[in-house]
Amino acid sequence: MKGEKMENNELLYLSEEDTIRAGLLDIRFCVDNAEEVFRTVTRGEYLMGGPSENEHGIRICFPKEKRFPGMPVAAPGYSFMAMPAYVGGPFGAVGEKWYGASLQNLKKNLPRAYHMVMLNDLETGRPLALLTAPLLSAARSGAAPGVAMRYLCHDGCKKAALVGAGLMNRFVILALFSECPGIESVQVYDIDGEKCKAYCREMSEFTGREVSAAGSMEEALRDADIVHTGQSNSFVLKKAWLKEGAVLLISSDVEIEQDILCDAQLVFDHKAAHDIWIQNDPQMGLPTFDALRLMEAGAIPADRVCDLGDVIEGRRLPEGVGHRIFYWMGMPVSDIALAAALYQNALDKKIGTKLRLWDKPLWK
Ligand SMILES: NC(=O)c1ccc[n+]([C@@H]2O[C@H](COP(=O)([O-])OP(=O)(O)OC[C@H]3O[C@@H](n4cnc5c(N)ncnc54)[C@H](O)[C@@H]3O)[C@@H](O)[C@H]2O)c1
Hints:
One of its GO terms (cellular component) is cytoplasm. It contains twelve helices and 18 strands. The chain is of the alpha/beta class.
């Protein structure tokens, strides 16, 4: 019989190297997977957390003041988050991504976030697989803007700008070269100039294409037909910096000037999730909140707004003549769908390490 057979008391552990061997660096595979996720979500064949069935996850945020000795306090980017999801459609998978993150890690030369994904059997709840997932998480994060490139960017796009020379933008650049074959130049801006140069060197070598470091945000964005934001600290995105008609792919915390927003065509990853977010956690200050408030005030008409799933399903494109903006804030369904596909590949190719839950449960 082809493929790995798992016993009832076993789960498959996939290290980062295992996930790579199972196909994680195959960007077309990741973008196709992300496209199916958007399709599945727009058809309503999913569940995410909480009573709204649309929550991003549950966060532990430490307070500004210590409440007892030994308690950590709030710090930039310091959080712990559980992100459960069921994704139906072609996936039929359930699981959870769990991570701890801190921006301080970057100073210690550590990853910003440590993600793990657990997949469970839909019928019994039995754990099927545990995956090391910082790279998986970056891949699903970079693949979604790749779907937006597939559906929202036109063939004439020749220049791209990436903000942030981090992990997510490694997959975004792979998606860019894969989805937009007409791209001739990529400018990258990062506040850390040395990191930016190292990223450009590495990604030029990896892709065999030229990737250049820009000296300023303005320089990177000036002539870009496509802009992707994937930086960790917020900035104000100015209309004066942008080429007319540039497509803006917003995956990180950015304050977009109101002039841009009021004319724009807005494509959400899944607007229902942002409606819940602004209600439950307005302090979070996501980049979508300004747009949602302008919509509520009537400054952005409803026909300028849709979900990417609507575009994929051929139902509609947003009206309007300004910049096309895609908002991508991440969804747990994406982690589970990509993990499920990698798990299947790992079984087929006999990749990974079997772990035993027990030889025999002591008490049931
Ligand atoms: N939408 C999603 O699904 C999703 C998923 C993961 C991360 N994110 C967001 O994207 C950000 C980047 O994620 P990552 O894993 O690539 O992080 P990373 O730490 O690997 O990279 C972030 C980079 O941004 C640079 N940077 C910070 N502020 C900047 C600024 N104002 N201008 C230019 N460069 C700046 C940093 O120097 C760093 O190199 C995260 O902080 C998070 O906010 C979004």
